[in-house]
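debug: dumping io for the single-chain case to check the tokenizer round-trip. Nothing else runs in this session.
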Amino acid sequence: MSAFAEHPSQQAPARRLAISHAAIKRATLWLLGASSGFALIEPSPYEFVFLLTLFVFAVTGIRFSQKLLPLAVLLLLYNIGGIFSLIPWLEEADSVRFTAVSVYLMITCIFFAAIMADDALGRLETLWKGYLFAAWCAGLAAVLGYFDIAGLGSVFTLYGRASGTFKDANVLGPFLVLPILYVLHRVLTGQSGLFRGLVLVSLPLLALFLSFSRGAWGNLVASAILMVGLTFLTAPSSAKRGRVVRLTLVAFMAAAAALAVALSFENIRDVFETRASLDQSYDQGVTGRFGNQLRSIPLLLDTPNGLGPLRFRWYFTDDPHNVYINAFASYGWLGGMAWLGLMAATCYVGWRLVLQRRPWQQHAVVLWPVLFVTILQGLQIDTDHWRHFYLMLGLIWGLAALPNPAAQAARPALSEPVAIKDSH
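debug: decoded output
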């Protein structure tokens, strides 16, 4: 036997597989983001993954900043108004479900805001990657459905429009705006190559187009303009600003070329021309979408408790398609005023956040334009039950509540005791 043979007791101990709490949290966040694009069934996988994620964070610890109190209080008042409005309709299962979903989404929003208190940049990156995966899955389903590949048209389309893994094409489209801008921003700032970025954005962008959602098209264009402008303004050097300008022009030309190719197909061009028109029959007249909204205002001013959850359609044959009208109709005066207050406070917080030099500023440059445009989009569609809306809302408030690292670093230096030389 070799003289160099080790005694068993002298052998190195076996390595243990160590998984930190931070890694587990990030894994559940990725899974949560990845499941956010599957909404064909209720409850969706997202609901179950959220409960798992909430459990993991609750066990390992969540810190709640006092700066999040306005968000929590306004959301709570909004839902209290909804509960009061529900009381006369407790026997209506759909109304009860509607109110329960509102309460659940409030919890998700506050959760996303609270978890930014620790490892904010790491958790944001994890959520981005999961969300991009969900966008690709939803986009792939939408494209397969629109072209009826493998007979999937009946599953992933609605009224001839791509809906993918969502029940409504008007929700699929806005859902895809955020990951598209995330990829474009990475290209503009040099974090991703141009070719790789175009590949990553291609499928979600095609799916958004095939949703033929005018709101989603407008959301994408307006959000992209805001994002590019903010990226230009916050660029650290003239060279970076020049890169933003050059790549924006390249992206615009690529988008124009892709649109020209898509419109060369007659069936796509016909639907596009119909949907692109602002002259839609269901929007016009006294009983159209906007006519119903105007007619509902006197009625809502006379009903402090609202009409009841989902009761607007009983008076005006359709949903309000306006989140602010719906806030007063389904949540009463208390809920309506709370929602208006929340949106006003969010606009103040969001614009203030995006213009501050912080390590997370570039994340805000992507998040805030989409959220801001979605807040405005609430004037023509009901956004109060969009999961990704509450995700963005929570993240913006969570980032705004973070302390300034520069101020924290300077504080110990300012409070350092001054040494007094002994004269003896």
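debug: round-trip ok. Residues 19-276+304-401 form one domain.
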